[in-house]
Write a structure and sequence with these properties.
The protein contains 6 helices and 6 strands. It is of the alpha/beta class and about 200 residues long. The chain has a 4-stranded parallel beta sheet, sandwiched between helices. Strands 4-5 form a two-stranded antiparallel ribbon. A hairpin with a 2-residue loop joins strand 4 and strand 5. Helix 3 runs parallel beside helix 4. The chain is globular. The two termini are about 20 Å apart. The C terminus is likely disordered.
């Protein structure tokens, strides 16, 4: 069971767990196995220093970027899903480039899910934003790839229950049966160390 309640999420997870959704505490192994890494970490408001009381604390994002750099065994596409300030992808690209020789492409795809409505918000988003460095061929390819996956994994809700259907009919819960994308998430007090 989930350690929190989100309407219809448990049912959706039960349907895909062990099929194309796997959980692990071995972030190091998952990073090495992935081509694309979706990162969603807490961005609390800073409580000290410059920006205290209004600016987001990007310490978790930086920590996960350093972990990705340390554990990567080849090029990766990093998708920032956290709600972060503009230009965070550029800052994270710098952290990655200073800490690994592998090519890392960082793109943004912020989530707009609200607590208690996350499944519905994902099922019928009022907007989907995907951004990357379109001056680079790698950035263009990463954005186009994520956009295509979004079309292939679109969600539609009917009466509050997730429905299977074709892409042109709306919701397609059929995820591609590949393990090339992982999601890294960390709770506010979570650990982001390899093997933890």
């Amino acid at each position: 069971l989930l350690p929190f309640y989100e309407p219809s999420m448990q049912e959706a997870l039960d349907e895909v767990r062990g099929v194309n959704l796997f959980f692990s505490t071995r972030a190091d192994e998952a990073i090495r196995a992935a081509d694309k890494i979706m990162v969603s970490v807490n961005t609390p408001i800073k409580d000290s220093g410059v920006g205290a009381g209004y600016a987001p604390d990007l310490g978790y994002w930086e920590r996960i970027a350093r972990l990705i750099a340390a554990e990567s065994n080849g090029p990766k596409v990093i998708v920032e899903r956290s709600t972060v300030p503009v230009r965070t992808a550029g800052a994270m690209s710098k952290v990655l480039s200073f800490n690994t020789a592998h090519k890392m492409v960082v793109i943004s795809n912020p989530e707009f899910a609200r607590q208690g409505n996350a499944m519905m918000d994902q099922a019928s988003p009022e907007r989907v934003m995907i951004g990357g460095d379109m001056r680079e061929a790698d950035g263009q390819a990463a954005v186009e790839s994520l956009a295509q996956e979004g079309i292939d994994l679109r969600v539609r809700s009917s009466g509050g229950a997730l429905q299977r259907g074709s892409v042109d009919g709306g919701f397609s819960a059929r995820a591609r049966r590949r393990k090339s994308t992982i999601a890294l998430a960390a709770a506010h007090h979570g650990s982001l160390t390899p093997g933890s």
